[in-house]
Amino acid sequence: MNGFSPWLPEASHTAFQTDLIFLGLCIAAGLIVVLVAALIIVFSVRYRAGSKAPRHKLPGFLARDLEIGWTFATLIAFLFFFGWAAAQDFTLLHSVPGALTIHVMGKQWMWKAEYPGGQREIDSLHVPLGTPVRLVLNSQDVIHSFYVPALRLKRDAVPGLTQTLSFTATRAGTYPLYCAEFCGTSHSHMLGSITVEEPEDYARWLTAQPQGDSLAAAGAERFRSFGCSGCHMGRGPVRAPDLTGIYGHPVPLADGRTIIADEAYIRDSILNPKKDVASGYAPVMPSFAGRISESALIELVAYIRSLANDTALNRGGQP
Ligand code: CUA
Question: CB under 6 Å to ligand 1: residues?
């Protein structure tokens, strides 16, 4: 299980592949270092000042063909590593339908996690073993970097950008969580832990948390208090897109593009509504940037996500 890294547990489904890529790169880079260093030493002895070694022009094969050959060989070898690592990184972006979605927000200087049921944690995360998990990552202020070495997970939390990280934890335990981006004076204190536990233990932990409204229920309340429902539920004078069932589906835009309505799109639409205007609608929605807190945003996004499988009932009775 942990063949390549006895000192760091491999606690996620991608950990072994990540280690393999790292080992492969180390071996390839090591071989090149040894080869180049050996040639430097051999040549500096052989062609030292005053040595009798022949210094005539090299035959064409050595001067040209070998040069081209080894340049291409290393190019292809490293392009192979690039492809391998990129494919691996894509698996972290690709989420399984029905994965447990946890919102993680970086802020100076803590990590805040919010669970679908409305449970909240600071500098700590709990995830069930063997269950696909999808983290939705944001930052409230500056660039942070969410880094869990044991799970081989690392992604920047960038203000104004919503990123996701998908993984399945494969080994129970508590592992350190770091911020891997210098983010201010207390960057080094931005530490936490992620606890991977059996699904039963996770369920027990979850029910022991203080019960708040679920994120979606809190979001529904925000949807009313911010006045979104006035336009988006078709009862006000302004016609705005119906958001029922929109999450996860393609949205045609006014400029001819099509965009998938994921967390990033919903969030952008609230903060910067003129950016991607839905086709057939006037760009009349005001921006909510600066008027809405990060946690309210997370709740609103969770609410709109929850409308994905909804019937007309939740649209306030609209058919
Ligand atoms: Cu946050 Cu360093």
Answer: 106, 109, 144, 179, 181-183, 187, 190
Using DSSP, state whether 40 is helix, strand or coil.
helix
- Please answer whether residues 71 and 104 qualify as being in contact, where contact means their C-beta atoms are separated by less than 8 angstroms: no
- Specify the amino acid at residue 289: A
pLDDT above 80: residue 133: yes
Half-sphere exposure at residue 226, Cβ-oriented, CA atoms within 13 angstroms: 23
DSSP letter (8 states) at residue 293:
-
Give the tens place of pLDDT for each residue, 107-123.
Answer: 999 999 988 887 888 99
Q: Find the 12 Cα to ligand 1 centroid distance in Å.
A: 23
Atom of ligand 1 nearest to the CA of 188: 2
> 157 C-alpha vs ligand 1 centroid, how far in Å?
9
Residue 226 CA, ligand 1 centroid: distance in Å:
31
Atom of ligand 1 nearest to the CA of 187: 2
Q: Report how far ligand 1's centroid is from the alpha carbon of 190 (Å).
A: 6
Neighbours of 106 (CB within 10 A): 26
Q: Is pLDDT above 80 for 237?
A: no
- Position 84, amino acid: W
- Collapsing DSSP to helix, strand or coil, 157 comes out as strand
Residue 4 Cα to ligand 1 midpoint, Å, equals 29
Q: Which atom of ligand 1 is nearest to the CA of 183?
A: 2
C-beta separation of 156 from 143 below 8 A: yes
List, in sequence order, every residue forming a beta bridge with 134; answer none if it has no partner: 101, 166
Q: How large is the angle between the packed helices 294-306 and 263-271, nearest 10 degrees?
A: 130
Q: Measure the CA–CA gap between 264 and 269, rounded to whole angstroms.
A: 8
The predicted model scores a pTM of 0.73
